[in-house]
Automatic annotation (TrEMBL):
InterPro entries: Glycg_phsphrylas, Glyco_trans_35, Pyridoxal_P_attach_site. This is Alpha-1,4 glucan phosphorylase. It comes from Oricola thermophila. Its EC number is 2.4.1.1. Its cofactor is pyridoxal 5'-phosphate. One of its GO terms (molecular function) is glycogen phosphorylase activity. SUPFAM superfamilies: UDP-Glycosyltransferase/glycogen phosphorylase (SSF53756). It is found in: Cytoplasm. It is an enzyme of class 2 (transferase). Gene3D superfamilies: Glycogen Phosphorylase B. It catalyses: [(1->4)-alpha-D-glucosyl](n) + phosphate = [(1->4)-alpha-D-glucosyl](n-1) + alpha-D-glucose 1-phosphate. One of its GO terms (biological process) is glycogen catabolic process.
């Protein structure tokens, strides 16, 4: 593909798709025209991939996920097609800023955080590895809310990514299924016929996802809900306009918004409807495709691998059994065996509040047939293991994790530690019954987005040093290792980081009106706000540091910029309080003339994929400070290490593996281990004791209590402080001293800049294993039994 070809394609779309000539085109017109021209280049490899899959009668992977946090797609597609230079040149000719064109694309936030972003990285890797695959999810009209701060408090606003043309998708009105809810079950012998009481139509929208080097494209198929009957003409004619439109509004509600929380189980009928809606539509589509090629449904597992991304699509188990047994007459036990051979399940959290449970009453009314099948699956499983008391149903609820486990042939955790803890805790009993079922697949991130595109300065240096094969084979980064002894290379590496930091400093000045010193250490914590992630421990440490600097401003402090970003679930009161506290601390600290050259605090609003792409390349220090045993894996930790940030972290999730790979000497470790944390929690008054033992912590807490950061309103953070003093489930107080000491060690190393750079290079050079290509290969071999098509 040449520059001329790209120019021609773009001008064609500008004229014929958008009705504009170049002289009058706005940035948005250029963006859509370019997207359509790029999409055109994807269609041929996309068709070729489909043909190769059909032609070779290959097994396909179906990744069912309630969330795909894909972000912007244009640059990704351009980079994967190798058209970046061409596109830049074309825009230079028209005197249009290519950066503005890319920035014009809405950030598709169809996910909350790590779980959704992992699914997006997996799509990139599945295409890169030429693994025949479909992503299946929901085409939410509104993605994750937009976050603003008003007087330091989080305010949520609806997100509107679809209000402008979505250039990437193909609407598929012909790929539509009617999805039922409620109604009755008529039993005839062992078979049953479900007659739903209401239904909606699931309509497909396809986005092709092109892999690295543009050789293969898979499909992301998202379902939107529309009514079976458009509106009630009779009522309309009677003048009941709103009532006439009601069925339509109700149906569309199903794909209206993304639930803004993945760490609590939502006891809402609408959430369950969303889950069944996309799962049922996807299974119908999978069977339709299978049937177009084969006629024996018993062979389904040979051609179909279905991955359940967490329990959100767990109803796939009973639904597949229903389709095989009720609708196709396959014996119940055989139907269960076939379904199990197709299905596998990824667990993403051990937090009890996030483990989905649905009441039998709700399930029974919304999905009466499925409830019966779940009972039968549960009873059969119990009968097969009479000596064990494990049940899927408990206290009137169906436990979706247990259901998924029983219906899957493989169950995986997302880091080595998390998988071990799964075996020992939530699934201990099931693991005893099925010892080979649990496997580990440590998460990874796509190097295309999270190094090549987001950090062009570092990528260019890597290319110059070892060539560019690392993009498709990230372990090749280890070839950088010998260059750590080359002072010229170290200088270039440091310069790339320095320029990234200077760019971020300019952005912070422009958007937040805060001047930060680009030479200072950029200390970054970016992730959802949650007590277990302990942003409050970070802000306590910030307060303590501020106090220490004020005590003795000339003690040779390492200048720091503390950067926070992340959203709190709208109903999570304490998390919102933590945001407010950080903003209050920032306001006071940033205006303190005594400390202002040494310490700044910035909370960047509206954290999303695009903001992450700006922050990660500019980070010196990566905060991965969750209470051990609570963060299943983390993936931001991998992105930051890959971009040369040093981690200050606990032995939690994938931090453990990051430290093993980059070397303990290149990682700031602190805090209790997971078993130590459990033991500590059992000590009465553990928090009070820890505060008494730590004057530094006591003083920081006292300042909050005295209203230093909330003048005139000392009560503002009473709940935060009380929680720390009297409960502190997440052990902020117990880990504080160790954290504070580790931070001071980081200060000292940062002063020895050459040592820091060496450590930083080693982090990049040794992070190759954390590619999502490696993760996907693991799933292909250990779980799906599929191969790349070459
Ligand atoms: C999460 C975990 O909290 C996170 O540690 C992990 O990296 C991610 C992807 O596996 O999944 N689980 C839930 S729930 N949300 C997440 O982000």
């Amino acid at each position: 593909m040449t520059k001329a070809g790209l120019r021609q394609g773009m001008l064609h779309h500008l004229k014929y798709s958008l009705g504009k000539d170049p002289a009058h085109a706005q940035v948005r017109d250029w963006r859509v025209a370019l997207s359509l021209a790029v999409r055109d280049r994807i269609v041929d490899p996309w068709f070729a991939a489909t043909r190769a899959t059909y032609g070779g009668r290959h097994k396909r992977v179906y990744y069912l996920s309630m969330e795909f946090l894909i972000g912007r797609l244009l640059e990704d597609a351009i980079v994967n097609l190798g058209l970046l230079d061409e596109a830049e040149e074309v825009f230079r000719e028209y005197d249009v800023s290519f950066g503005d064109v890319l920035a014009n694309e809405p950030d598709a936030a169809l996910g909350n955080g790590g779980l959704g972003r992992l699914a997006a990285c997996f799509l990139d890797s599945l295409s890169t590895l030429a693994c025949p695959a479909y992503g299946y999810g929901i085409r939410y009209e509104h993605g994750l809310f937009r976050q603003r701060f008003v007087d330091g408090r989080q305010v949520e606003e609806p997100e509107t990514w679809l209000s402008d043309t979505h250039a990437w998708e193909f609407q598929r009105p012909e790929a539509a299924f009617e999805i039922g809810f409620g109604g009755e079950v008529a039993e005839t012998g062992s078979r049953a016929l479900w007659q739903p009481g209401e239904s909606v139509i699931a309509e497909a929208h396809d986005t092709p996802i092109i892999g690295w080097r543009g050789n293969w494209a898979n499909t992301l198929r998202l379902w939107s809900a529309r009514p079976t009957r458009l509106f009630d003409l009779e009522r309309f004619n009677r003048g009941e306009f709103a009532a006439a439109a009601e069925p339509e509004a109700l149906a569309r509600t199903i794909s209206r918004v993304l639930y803004p929380d993945d760490t609590t189980e939502q006891g809402k009928a609408l959430r369950l409807k969303q889950e069944y809606f996309f799962t049922a539509a996807s299974l119908r589509d999978i069977l339709r495709r299978f049937r177009s090629e084969y006629d024996d449904l018993r062979k389904l597992p040979l051609k179909v691998a279905i991955q359940l991304n967490d329990t959100h699509p767990a109803i796939a188990g009973p639904e597949l059994v229903r389709l095989l047994h009720d609708e196709n007459g396959i014996d119940f036990d055989d139907a269960v065996a076939i379904a199990r051979a197709c299905l596998s399940y990824t667990n993403h959290t051990l937090m009890p509040e996030a483990l989905e449970r649905w009441s039998e009453a709700l399930l029974g009314s919304l999905l009466p047939r499925h409830m019966k099948l779940i009972e039968r699956i549960d009873d059969t499983h119990a009968r097969q293991h009479p000596d064990r008391k494990m049940r899927i149903r408990e206290d009137g609820d169906v436990r979706m994790g247990e259901l998924s486990f029983v219906m899957a042939h493989k169950v995986n955790g997302v880091s080595a530690l998390h998988t071990d803890l799964m075996r020992q805790t939530v699934f201990a009993e099931l693991n005893r019954l099925h010892p080979d079922r649990i496997v580990n697949e440590t998460n990874g991130v796509t190097p295309r987005r999270w190094l090549l595109s987001c950090n062009p300065r570092l990528s260019a240096l890597i290319d110059r040093t070892i060539g560019n094969d690392w993009v498709g084979d990230l372990e090749r980064l280890s070839e950088l290792e010998p260059h750590v002894e080359d002072s010229g290379f170290r200088a270039d590496f440091a310069a790339a980081k320095a320029e990234n930091k200077a760019e971020l400093a300019r952005f912070i000045l422009e958007t937040e009106n805060i001047a930060v010193d680009p030479e200072a250490m950029f200390d970054i914590q970016i992730k959802r706000i949650h007590e277990y992630k302990r942003q409050h421990m970070n802000i306590l440490e910030t307060i303590a540091l501020w106090q220490a600097i004020r005590d003795n401003p000339d003690a040779g402090w390492t200048p720091r910029v503390k950067i926070f970003a992340g959203k709190a679930a709208p109903g999570y009161v304490l998390a919102k309080k933590i945001i407010h506290l950080i903003n209050d601390v920032a306001r006071l600290v940033n205006s303190d003339p005594v400390t202002s050259s040494l310490l700044k605090v910035v909370f960047m609003p509206n954290y999303n994929v695009t903001l992450a792409e700006r922050l990660i390349p500019a980070a010196d220090l990566s905060e991965q400070i969750s209470t051990a045993g609570k963060e299943a894996s983390g993936t931001g930790n991998m992105k930051l290490a890959l971009n040369g940030a040093l981690t200050i972290g606990t032995r939690d999730g994938a931090n453990v593996e990051i430290r093993e790979r980059v070397g303990a000497e290149n990682f700031f470790l602190f805090g209790m281990t997971a078993p130590e944390a459990v033991a500590r929690r059992a000590v009465p008054d553990h928090a009070t004791r820890a505060i008494e033992a730590s004057p530094v912590l006591a003083r920081a807490i006292a300042a909050i209590e005295a209203g230093v950061f909330s003048p005139g309103d000392p009560e503002r953070y009473r709940d935060v402080v009380e929680n720390l003093r009297w409960s502190d489930y997440f052990l902020v107080c117990s880990d504080f001293d160790s954290y504070y000491a580790s931070q001071r060690e980081a200060d000292a190393v940062f002063m020895d800049r050459d040592r820091w750079i060496r450590m930083s290079v080693r982090n990049t050079a040794r992070s190759g294993w954390f590619s999502s290509d490696r993760t996907i290969r693991g799933y292909m071999n250990d779980i799906w039994g599929v191969q790349s098509i070459v």
